[in-house]
Amino acid sequence: MQFSYAISGVLGVHTAEGSFFAPPQWGVWVPEGLEHEVVTSMRAEMRSLYIRTADSGWAPQRCRVLEVTPLARELIKSFCLLPVDYPEQDSHEARLVQVLLDQLAHLPEVGFSLPLPRHPRLLSLCNELIEEPGQLITLHDWAARLGTSEKTLMRLFQRETGLSFRGWRQRARLLSSLSALEEGASVTHTALACGYDSTSAFIAAFKGLFGYTPGDLFK
């Protein structure tokens, strides 16, 4: 299994089930054997830990975004300094690794993920919105393109993604803003590019999802 950690910048893990984003000081668990792609923003610095399930005694069943605590952060830094062939039997290095694994197993999960539907036409529309997060397409517009009613589409969207259309679109917009902000775009420019009418509305939504304002997260 793999744990990818963003020291700085933003990393994303893309799978068939959705995308998982880690701003600075967050990380993503990737289950063993899961086909995925890891992408990073231009100025990102990341570390990926590859862990044998037999060594940890447990394994994540799905991708998860986790908040990395200060203790886990320092343990990861120390782990990355170890030689590849460190002594695994009753050594300082082995004890450090066991403490790290225990910490990783108990990191709090956060909702920085964007689930994708399996319904082909709905997936196509979702990908369109991911590519152009600022577009103002409405649920009515989507329903018309799919040849169905708004109520039917709402139920389908909830069943396929676990989110309402409005909630999914807001999360898609906010997650898309991370790379732009990390690369130096202004909050105002980013807010407008993501389809928000005002900077204040964008900042409020951003803090609601991430727990920080854009300025605090990327200071």
TrEMBL record:
One of its GO terms (molecular function) is DNA-binding transcription factor activity. Gene3D superfamilies: Homeodomain-like. It comes from the Bacteria. InterPro entries: Homeodomain-like_sf, HTH_AraC, RmlC_Cupin_sf. Keywords: DNA-binding, Repressor, Transcription, Transcription regulation. The keyword Repeat does not apply. The keyword Cell inner membrane does not apply. This is Transcriptional regulator, AraC family.
